[in-house]
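Revision sheet: structure tokens.
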Amino acid sequence: MPRDFLAQTLLAAAFLVIAAAPGASAQKSDVEAHRRSPPPASGPAEITFYSGTSLRGTAVTLVGNEQSFASLRFNDKARSVEVKGGVWQLCSDSGLRGHCEYVDRTVSNLGEIGLSGNISSAQLTSYDRSPRGYDITFFANGNYRGAFVGFDEGEASFAPFRFNDTASSVMINRGTWLVCEHADYRGRCELLDASVSDLSAIGMNDAITSFRRYDVRREGPWRPPVPAPGHGGAGGFEGEQSVFFPAPTVRGARISNRDGAATRFCQENGFDEAAYKAPGPVLSDVLCR
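Predicted:
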């Protein structure tokens, strides 16, 4: 067998082995899944319900609200939906009650949002995007119901959005977030990496005024500050002649640990100097005196 032909055969076999590896298959699946994800609809308000998955079977089309699918003889029959325009609220019970979800794009299997064979009413909303289209969405009521506001970036205050101290549940679709009770990420804060259907469970119901993304890799593990009397509320454990600050922050943000950062932090809080600071990219575990 010629040497060149043998080399080409071995190279082709190696390529086939790599392509068949689990990592390659997983990467290919991720790409295909991304390609299959439909974009938000942008046409005039219209939605079509299908009795089968993948937009198959008997179809019913709406261009406006429907309080009861019984009048359409389509109650609890829809298993997929094609959104051609608008943002729609779909509910399991008539009169827009029960389990409700917002959709702004085609859903080939309504089981993905818990509504397969379980839709009895629908309405066109005034929103431009559905809650799942944002990185983080706040709802006025628990269980992701009622008026909502969605964001892809943090905000130092809810006041411009008329949503201050209003949120009762939060849906997190992407990222980790710090939610705080006062403007500029001050006051009590909680770190969230998953949706919360009832904010009273973490003591933050009707108590969120600001929020921002939190990068654990860059900022380090987040720990809530402990207020120390007589030192500007910066947070710390007060001793007889010094105060210990675990993971100090400024307006909710971690501090870069550059030259003099610990001394500046201590002096800004009424102390003379930093007696100790832990090493690392962000200021952590500072002892002020």
